[in-house]
UniProtKB/TrEMBL annotation:
InterPro entries: Hexapep (IPR001451), Hexapeptide_acetyltransf (IPR051159), Trimer_LpxA-like_sf (IPR011004). It comes from the Bacteria. This is Acyltransferase. Gene3D superfamilies: Hexapeptide repeat proteins. Transmembrane segments: none annotated. SUPFAM superfamilies: Trimeric LpxA-like enzymes. CDD domains: LbH_MAT_like. It comes from Angustibacter aerolatus.
């Protein structure tokens, strides 16, 4: 866990083993406030799988599940469930290639 990383857990944020979290990463299981009156605040658990690498300034939104071995590129926004063992990039983060070496990183 690097400097400036934040975890906002209204309900649940689960982080697996051997996870790398870069500077300025935000893990949020809540939107904090409603956008449209009467719609309520969106809250959903966040799950970060084993061996994940969240690079600098990644934002993980409510309900996201980051699969085992996934690498999320700097500045990306994760929503939904990117496939395991991929490099995901963008806003929203989408797979750009497979991770060549599966298994525990050293």
């Amino acid at each position: 866990m690097n400097q400036g990383a934040t975890i906002h857990a209204e309900q649940s944020v689960t982080i697996g083993s051997h996870v790398h979290v870069g500077d300025g990463v935000a893990l949020c299981d809540t939107d904090f406030h409603e956008v449209d009156p009467g719609e309520g605040v969106h809250v959903a658990p966040v799950v970060i799988g084993d061996g994940v690498w969240l690079a600098r300034s990644v934002t993980v939104l409510p309900g996201a599940v980051v699969g085992e071995g996934t690498v999320v590129a700097a500045g990306s926004v994760v929503r939904g469930e990117p496939a395991p063992w991929v490099v995901a990039a963008g806003a929203p983060a989408r797979p750009v290639r497979d991770v060549r070496t599966r298994g525990r990183r050293r």
